[in-house]
């Protein structure tokens, strides 16, 4: 009892010191830490100490235990008590922020919103917390796909930061808003906003790391905007600037002087996360352009960096980066003839999605799309159709929808007996009329699909028109895979028509381009055509050389086909609903035919 007559600081600091010692022990002794903090209440502390202790207890229980009920009780008490105390901003707003985060984790989003709204309303005299809480509520709305409310809040934040004299934070709010507008495809609003952001970023003089991080944010938005539009060639200057920018950031030290304006105490992303993000957009560009070895190189670098970061950092954005990287490299593997590796990486994406419901919700459609592409590569057309159909039901993203429909149309063309469904799909992706997206790449692919159908129907002049349109578009933006596919198909048409010279003029560059990508299927197709062409022209030696090439490609593809179909993960092709299966039963052997490739 004697302790209660002493100054409260002594017993309080002693208990706090013990609690912190136990929390930071290796390994942490959380139970003892909680006991020390709970002991504070035995001394009937004043309201400030009581509120702070409830906040500390709630935070420790939330972050380090599964006792969510007790964590919620302490965080709610911290928020309630701190609102009655003046001049107590840090505890008050941290309690609101963590309590809202806790509610969201427990799927109690409707409980989180009023807490954040109230905190935003009473924090206008505390610039740091006002901006942080606006970002937090905007993020909550964005996660709920309510992008209009999120954009409104970010607009409010940008104006507040301008009034508070922080152009840096104003730029962060505006760039965040630009990112959401890009997601909503509101391109007429994006362009003036990005122009304004570019001016603010270039004119702002301040902390070098903050300035460069704003430039990275700005350039990432520009690059992804170009890539979304399928403009692989046009994006190159922006991508080069972005790569130079990240090199500059990596040479700067983090120990720069902190901003004096409390409204500017924000970082967009840690430096290490920005490096991974730049690798990621480089991989996206390389894949679209058909530089698949370059995509592989940057994927390896990025995944290595991610593994190191994930040992120290549990940030969910790292898993998102990992999944997007894997999605892109899987598509590369399917093109380069490494189906077995692609399938194992699809399984890896499944495992990552099992660990995070939000990740699965955001990537389920992509996962089924990848399985559909894998099914095409191993000639399981019924499964491909089922996977693409499942993916279409799961996405509202227009570009992904168009990509899926384009691939599903290719399945129907190969099957040859799905005319009604095929024409229904082709009406929805007509490149000559009301094409659903602005993507240059997808529109060029839609022309190719029309050309492929006309070829199978024997309407060769019509096929040539469509394929020349694809070539014109793919050459304009360096879309190497579409160029190679169009050239080899045109070569095939000219061969069928008996125009061997023109056929050769198409097939030789197709083979060269396919080797550079490298695209195994186009190499297989080109070598078969070169064999027949040279044979028809009496070039025995060249025909023998082409036949040998064709044999080599066939053997490589056959071995990879058998390896992929023998993996237990091959059973994923039957999964079209719910969470991905955890266990895979081993296959007895390949159940599919390679005849369509050979």
TrEMBL record:
<dbReference type="GO" id="GO:0005654">
    <property type="term" value="C:nucleoplasm"/>
</dbReference>
<dbReference type="GO" id="GO:0007059">
    <property type="term" value="P:chromosome segregation"/>
</dbReference>
<dbReference type="InterPro" id="IPR019440">
    <property type="entry name" value="MAU2"/>
</dbReference>
<dbReference type="Pfam" id="PF10345">
    <property type="entry name" value="Cohesin_load"/>
</dbReference>
<dbReference type="InterPro" id="IPR011990">
    <property type="entry name" value="TPR-like_helical_dom_sf"/>
</dbReference>
<keyword id="KW-0539">Nucleus</keyword>
<dbReference type="GO" id="GO:0051301">
    <property type="term" value="P:cell division"/>
</dbReference>
<dbReference type="GO" id="GO:0007064">
    <property type="term" value="P:mitotic sister chromatid cohesion"/>
</dbReference>
<keyword id="KW-0498">Mitosis</keyword>
<keyword id="KW-0132">Cell division</keyword>
<protein>
    <recommendedName>
        <fullName>MAU2 chromatid cohesion factor homolog</fullName>
    </recommendedName>
</protein>
<keyword id="KW-0131">Cell cycle</keyword>
<comment type="similarity">
    <text>Belongs to the SCC4/mau-2 family.</text>
</comment>
<keyword id="KW-0159">Chromosome partition</keyword>
């Amino acid at each position: 009892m004697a302790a209660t007559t002493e100054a409260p600081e002594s017993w309080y600091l002693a208990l706090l010191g013990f609690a912190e010692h136990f929390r930071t022990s290796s390994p942490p002794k959380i139970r003892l830490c909680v006991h020390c903090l709970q002991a504070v209440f035995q001394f009937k502390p004043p309201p400030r100490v009581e509120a702070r202790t409830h906040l500390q207890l709630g935070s420790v229980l939330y972050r380090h235990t599964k006792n969510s009920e007790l964590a919620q009780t302490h965080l709610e008490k911290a928020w309630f008590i701190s609102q009655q105390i003046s001049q107590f901003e840090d505890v008050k707003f941290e309690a609101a922020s963590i309590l809202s985060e806790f509610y969201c984790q427990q799927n109690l989003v409707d409980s989180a919103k009023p807490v954040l709204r109230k905190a935003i309303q009473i924090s206008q005299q505390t610039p740091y917390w006002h901006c942080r809480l606006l970002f937090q509520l905007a993020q909550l709305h964005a996660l709920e796909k309510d992008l209009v409310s999120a954009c409104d809040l970010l607009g409010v934040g940008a104006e507040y930061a301008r009034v508070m004299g922080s152009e840096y934070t104003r730029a962060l709010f505006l760039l965040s808003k630009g990112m959401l507008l890009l997601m909503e495809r509101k391109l007429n609003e994006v362009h003036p906003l990005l122009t304004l952001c570019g001016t603010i970023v270039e004119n702002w003089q301040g902390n070098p790391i903050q300035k460069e991080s704003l430039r990275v944010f700005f350039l990432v938005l520009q690059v992804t905007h170009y890539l979304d539009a399928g403009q692989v060639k046009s994006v190159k200057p922006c991508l080069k600037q972005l790569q130079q920018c990240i090199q500059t950031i990596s040479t700067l030290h983090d120990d720069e002087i902190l901003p004096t304006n409390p409204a500017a105490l924000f970082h967009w992303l840690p430096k290490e996360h920005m490096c991974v993000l730049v690798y990621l957009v480089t991989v996206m560009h390389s894949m679209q352009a058909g530089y698949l070895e370059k995509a592989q190189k940057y994927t390896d670098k990025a995944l290595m960096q991610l593994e190191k970061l994930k040992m120290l950092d549990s940030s969910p954005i790292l898993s998102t980066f990992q999944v997007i990287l894997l999605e892109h490299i899987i598509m590369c593997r399917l093109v380069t003839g490494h189906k077995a590796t692609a399938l194992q990486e699809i399984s890896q994406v499944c495992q990552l999605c099992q660990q995070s419901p939000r990740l699965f919700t955001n990537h389920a459609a992509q996962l089924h799309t990848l399985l559909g592409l894998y099914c095409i590569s191993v000639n399981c057309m019924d499964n491909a159709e089922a996977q693409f159909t499942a993916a279409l039901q799961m996405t509202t993203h227009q570009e992904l929808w168009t990509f899926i429909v384009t691939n599903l149309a290719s399945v129907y063309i190969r099957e040859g007996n799905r005319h009604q469904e095929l024409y229904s799909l082709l009406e929805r992706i007509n490149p000559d009329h009301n094409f659903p997206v602005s993507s240059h790449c997808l529109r060029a692919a839609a022309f190719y699909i029309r050309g492929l159908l006309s070829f199978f129907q024997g309407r060769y002049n019509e096929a040539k028109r469509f394929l020349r349109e694809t070539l014109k578009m793919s050459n304009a933006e360096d879309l190497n895979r579409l160029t190679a596919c169009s050239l080899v198909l045109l070569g095939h048409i000219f061969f069928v028509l008996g125009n061997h010279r023109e056929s050769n003029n198409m097939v030789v560059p197709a083979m060269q381009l396919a080797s550079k990508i490298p695209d195994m299927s186009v190499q297989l197709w080109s070598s078969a055509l070169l064999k027949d062409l040279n044979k028809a022209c009496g070039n025995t030696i060249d025909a023998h050389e082409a036949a040998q090439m064709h044999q080599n490609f066939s053997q490589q593809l056959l071995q990879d086909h058998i390896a992929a179909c023998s993996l237990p993960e091959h059973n994923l092709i039957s999964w079209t609903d719910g969470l991905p299966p955890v266990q895979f039963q081993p296959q007895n052997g390949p159940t599919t035919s390679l005849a369509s490739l050979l």
